[in-house]
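Box 3.1 A note on notation
Throughout this textbook, protein chains are presented in two layers. The first layer is the amino acid sequence; the second is a token string describing backbone geometry. Keep the layers aligned when reading.
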Amino acid sequence: MFFNLLGSLFSRMCVASGRRTVITAAAKEIQDTKVSSFRTLDSYPPEHGLNHLNHIYTVPETITNVLMPGVPDEMKKQIKIFHEFSILIRKPAIELISYLEQTDYTKCINKYVLYGNLGVGKTITLLHLVHYGLVRNFVVVYLPWVANWFRFPKKIVQSVSNPDQLDLPEEAATWLKFFKYLNTMTLSQLNLKVTKEYTWSHRESTKCDDSLFSLIDFGIQRSKFACDVVHALLDEIKKASIVGKCRTLVVIDGFNAFTAKSTLVRDENRVYATPDRISITSAFFDIVNYNWCNGAVILTVDTRANKERKESVYPAYLLGKKGFEHLDPFLPICVENYSTEEFETILKYYEDRKWIREISSQGQKEWEMLCNKNPREVWNFSKPL
């Protein structure tokens, strides 16, 4: 009785403090003896189909670890609180997985563009597909949220190989580390080699037939050349795909940042540079071109990625004329707010993780009206409950 009273008092103190704590809100790491109705034990994305819709699967810890650098900050908080990385299996992901499973990879690459309102879950859908690519042994070229490069560059220097362009060496080196970490297992199995010699300076070069790892490591260690290494790496991956040595899945979040009219990157004259003046832009523009096979491209467009285009969420508008013509033809896939079934699944999951208490049917209806079943708003409204 004493311990019950003490627990009750502690709970009231936490509520009175006006903030949620991991102690009161996070789920405990307890192995359940039975699987909840809203979950599926099938954590292998290639097998996810219509029978898995509206269910939550838990990403294995090994995959979670390699994905973490590319996970949005808010999702990282959820993973820490819930002690697991769980993804709701939704229609856009199922649709794309079915397309990727049926693709004839001997033909030119297919392109898919996810679009939708803010907070509908485009990035989480991409993570589901990155997981698919990893377990299918694709080389995954994943670029999380392009706009961060153009808004918060750590260092801006004149390009080593092209004086008219600007390098973002720190961002390029960081991405190379992420790429290596994400693909270490796949690249180790494939044992890809560099197809030509790259001369970086009078004393530094990457020899023909060196491993792809040596090229990546050079860019990480010598950030001065990191942007040029990104160009070389993507070019080598395309060549390897064309000759059938590997399959490549290109995944880029917020691609329309590459087609914006300006960035927050300033040149030596303090003038804001356009994306095409930043050297790494052309590397990622080239990797989504049609001139290769044994791969697929999945992109998102978002109003947050392009500050001068806010009036519509449709790809043709957000990409602009240049971006649209470069990608066309592509298959647009709309990501929408939660369906009623998805909304109910998420609430059950929050209850299961002890993030919220049991909510009455009336309370659930009010919550649904307040957030309009928008995934981001569903999460935001759950925080003070």
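Residues 169-190 form the longest helix (22 residues). The longest strand covers residues 110-115.
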